[in-house]
Each structure stands twice: as structure tokens, then as C-alpha cells.
Amino acid sequence: MVPHKKYEMNHLAKLARSELKLAVLLSRPTMTAAQIEQVSELISIIDVTYFRELLEQHHICPCVYLNSKNHFVTLFPDDLHAYLHKKYQKNIRQSYQRFTTYGELLHLFKVADIPVRTLKGIPLAKKLYGDIVKRYSKDIDLIIPAYQINKANKKIMTLGYECNVYDQLSKNQQHLYLQSNKDVIYTRKTGVPLELHVRPCQYSTALSKNYTRQLFNSSSLEDKSNYEIIYLCWHGTQTFYHRLKWLLDIVLYIEYLKANDQLNIDSLVLLANELNSMRSLTVSWILANTLYETPVPAPILNFYHRDKVTRILVNKSLNFLNLSEKINTKRFRFDVYFYARLIPQGWADKRLLLMGIFTPNIDDIKLLSALPDKLFILHYIMRPLVFFYTRLRPNKS
Q: Taking the model in full, what pTM does it have?
């Protein structure tokens, strides 16, 4: 590595505050002796209040609690340890609910002859963490073929789920909804939320179409790991990895592939380029190197130094990981919206995202709810006006 490039990578590492470094070390399912030693040095110099804010945002409390309990119980303040214990116990209960609900839903779809696959969730937690309780999750993500959505919707309702959006729409409005939304969200009083996807990504990009095809191609002998890790990279990059949990998934996935002799960098990079996802893959890997010291392969590093957009995304992600920039702000929403349209490299995907600006979404449908169903085409015509109105109107006090 040439000197100025080495300096730039070292500079990135220095952007991480001590509290974030501590969160990173404690977020792992298991720790090495060297990592334990680093934690011991960091605990005494952290701002506990800020550290707790990091834990709230990054959804890594289960592993942080277990590591602190096993190695540092006397070094953590009592109130912080009590807070972590409470979070861990809650995650145990939620994990049990997710596991039983997950089985219930899979059985429901099998009986109804609806093809279904899992995105992230329990299988990923088991593969990467070894114990589903160690990975925080609040919902279940399933994906079905888009043409099965109405049949699936009726079946899900028999389990006591409710859908306060999709179910209230007319047939034409449902069609509009699914053009700009990748999933339908369900809630149940006695269970966990369900996100039922009709595609992995918001629009039918190269990644979305090809990953879906791989998920449902039961006759294919091709390993789906490269598709899955690229999808996870896309998912985290979309919102600047403001949850450290998502970056940890990438780190553990890379380590899992290495441990099982399944990491073929050339094949992974080739596929990422084919799926217009090289920026997402590079952002994720550089962040993994910056925070978790994951070695960076030459093709990834070379792309990072060539591509200005990737470098901007890495720096913005570090700001959100550090809480230097807040996520519950208009600026965050604008940045997510703006930079999501820069991430794809291929013009076909860029065109889809640009067209999405003029595709009616649920806000348009609600705002024009009085529009007769037979005139639903007016949603497209009025979309530019609604788009600017919803962004320029003053906030209600």
C-alpha cells in the first residue's frame, strides 16, 4: 500500500471515538485475549452516558451483556450492568417469541402452498452467532413471490395479524403501493412484527431480481452466500450503517466464509460488479476494516481509492456510527434519500431509482385518499406536485 493510502486508512480508524471502539470490541459473540485486554484499557476512560446512547442505537446489547458478565462484571458500573441485564432478558423473551412465530408462519405458508424464504433473521443469527439470543432483532423478515401477496395476506390474517396500511387500500392502490414499497408490515398483539417482502430491495434492481431468483431456485446447486453477503452490504449501506449490528453481520459473515474455506474474493467482486453493488460491498468492507480490523482484499481497496462516492459514504457512515450525526432528523432522511441514488453504478439501476422519485408512494395515496379509484392514474400525474408539497409544507407544531 502506498504511503498516502496507508495514511488515509489510519485516519479513518482515528475517527472512531473510544466509546465506539469499546462497543465494537464487546459486540462480538466471542472475544480473544487481546480483545479482552483492549476492553480493560478502554473502560476507565469512557463517557458512560455516551456509551449507553451508542448501545441504544446500535442494537448490540445481548453480546455486550454476555461479554461484560463473563469478563468485566467488576469493571462496569452497577447501573450499566443492570441496564444490560434487563436488555438481555428482554431479548431472550423476544427471541423465543420470534422462534415460535417463525415456525408458525413457515407452517402456514407450507400448508397454503406459498413459496417462502427468510431474509436475515433467525437462520442468519444461528449461522453467524451460534446462538439466536446473541443477535438482537425485533421482527421477522420473510419474502414470497409478488404474485402471491394477496393470498398470503388473507392467510396471515387468520393468525391474528393486522395490517393498518395495505389492507385499507383498493386493488389499484395496492398496485401503486407495491411499486414503491418492498414489503407489507403486519403486527400482532401476542407476537412479533412481520415484514412480508415481495422483493429484497426497494426497487427491482439487478441485485433485487437476481437475489430473489437465487432464493427461489431450489434446483440450483450454486452457493447463495455471495448473494446474501452482497444483499446485507446493500441493506446496511442504504442508511449509513447507523446500526452497528448490521456491520457486525458483515464482519462475522466474512469470518464464517474464511473459516469454511468459502471466501473467493474474485468471484465475490465479479458478482458485485454484475449486480451494480461494488460500492455497497466496498463501503461495508472498509468500515469492517476500520472498526473490526477485517483485512481488506486488494480489489476492494483499489475500488475505495478510485471511487469518490464510496469514500463519502464511508465518512458519513462513521459519523452516524459515532452519533456525530443524529438519525431522527430531516437531514438524515434527506441524506438517505439522496445518497441511495448514488450507490448503484449501472445506469439501469440509477434509472429505476430516479423514476422512483415520480412513483406514487403511500404518502401520496393517503394525501389523495378521496380520489375515486377509477381515476387512480392521476396519482402519477400529480406526483411531482405532491412530492414538493410534502417536503416544503411547514411542520405542524
A: 0.91
